From TrEMBL:
Residues 6-134 form the Nudix hydrolase domain. This is NUDIX domain-containing protein. GO terms for molecular function: hydrolase activity. Belongs to the Nudix hydrolase family. It comes from Anaerobaca lacustris. It comes from the Bacteria. Pfam families: NUDIX. PROSITE patterns: NUDIX, NUDIX_BOX. Keywords: Hydrolase. InterPro entries: Nudix_hydrolase, NUDIX_hydrolase-like_dom_sf, NUDIX_hydrolase_CS, NUDIX_hydrolase_dom.
């Protein structure tokens, strides 16, 4: 991939199923840590369109009830496999889908109780999104 000389806006989501369990996936791009699905916003695409597309591409899940949670800055952090500058826009949403199909960005996935998620080796920025979600939903 070509070197980027500008911040890249991205979207990601905490996805909850009908049982209230959180979807997490393990990704080699994040050094094997558990993360939420998401990715870049394409030119001409709204953040919600990007979120729906990225989740569909990475997991095959359709989402609903999208709620903005927080934004985070990621500047050349070694937690990611490439030197990048991201601006994360994190959301929470729900899904009624049951069949998960991962693309090559994830090696595994789990549906887990939110309380147990933080006990897993969750990637730092995912942990921040979970913490912010919990603050809004006490």
């Amino acid at each position: 991939m070509a070197k980027q000389n500008y911040p890249e806006p991205t979207v990601g989501a905490l996805i909850f199923n009908g049982e209230g369990k959180l979807f997490l996936m393990r990704s080699h791009k994040w050094r094997g840590k558990w993360v939420v699905p998401g990715g870049h916003i394409e030119l001409g695409e709204t953040m919600e369109q990007a979120l729906r597309r990225e989740i569909r591409e990475e997991t095959n899940l359709e989402i609903r009830d999208i709620e903005f949670i927080c934004f985070q800055e990621f500047i050349h952090d070694e937690r990611f496999w490439q030197r990048r500058h991201f601006i994360f826009f994190d959301y929470a949403c729900r899904t009624d889908s049951t069949e998960v199909v991962l693309n090559d960005e994830a090696q595994d996935y789990a549906w887990i109780d939110l309380d147990r998620a933080m006990a897993m080796p969750v990637e730092h920025y995912t942990a921040v999104a979970i913490t912010e979600y919990r603050k809004k939903h006490r």
